[in-house]
Amino acid sequence: MELNSVLLTAGGSIGFFKLVNCGVSKLPIPDTACRNAWKWRNICTSFTHSLITGIWAVLCFFVHPQMAEDLIGTHSVFSHTLVSVSIGYFIYDFLDMVLNQKMILSWELLFHHTVVISCFGITVLTGRYVGFAVVALLVEINSVFLHLRQILRMANLAEGNLYRINSMVNLGTYVVFRINTLAWMTRWLVLNRDNIPLFSYTAGSVGLAIMTAMNIVLFYRLLRSDFLKSSTPTPTDCKESRGQGEGKKET
């Protein structure tokens, strides 16, 4: 894809998720979420992104299986578009947080988004490592359940069977699609060091180190909140729900 196509796709993505956010604002909001309507809209928008990109990332390897054998130079327009769309989402979410939330409450996610946008930006502009970026977006499969967790908490449904089932699925997919994926990506980066320019290798290594640290902290928060003590809202819920990686997140 040419630069103009990348900019158009990312810009269209920003507009799309803005429309999703506006659409959510027109829907009924649970009484317990009315005190923070912005957060409700933001989480629902993030849930939509995770659902779309999680499925899309899996389909990328079905549509173009050769990409799994060469994560550096082989990719399809379908997979390149996915990365561009995700850049648009992270730019949108970054601006949404800057405009609507205090910096002290969102600095972790703003930092996360900056790292993701930078790494994905290198990918779409150079046309290389697209497969590697798509692997990173597999974490969005877990983000679906991570965001659903916060939606249920905000709707005051943290005591029901649905929440308990989602908590177990969330933890399981967290291990499979976040921790294992990050570990595999780190191993791949080390094994292919000789095939990657120093700048790209450094950017990837730093990005992975930051994502790994953030996800380990998030995993501890989730484990403590949902399994090691009674499920009650805590000041860290906003950070937990967004993931980071997220991812909220990401990646």
Total DSSP E strands: 0
Structural shape = globular
> Largest sheet, described in full?
none
Portion in helices: over 70%
Strand content: under 5%
N-to-C SSE string, H for helix and E for strand: HHHHHHHHH
Q: Can you count the helices?
A: 9
Low-confidence stretches: 231-251
Distance between the termini: 22 Å
Structural class: mainly alpha
Our count of domains comes out at: 1
Quick check: average pLDDT? Answer: 89
Radius of gyration: 18 Å
Subcellular location: Membrane
Pfam families: TRAM_LAG1_CLN8
Keywords: Membrane, Transmembrane, Transmembrane helix
Protein name: TLC domain containing 2
Give the helices and strands, then pairings.
Layout: H1 3-25, H2 37-63, H3 77-100, H4 103-126, H5 130-136, H6 140-154, H7 161-191, H8 198-226, H9 237-242
Structure description:
The protein has 251 residues and is mainly α. The chain has one domain. It has nine helices and no strands. It has helices spanning 3-25, 37-63, 77-100, 103-126, 130-136, 140-154, 161-191, 198-226, 237-242. α1 (3-25) crosses α2 and α3 crosses α5 (130-136). It is globular. The two termini are 22 Å apart. The relative contact order is 0.14. Residues 231-251 have low confidence and may be disordered.
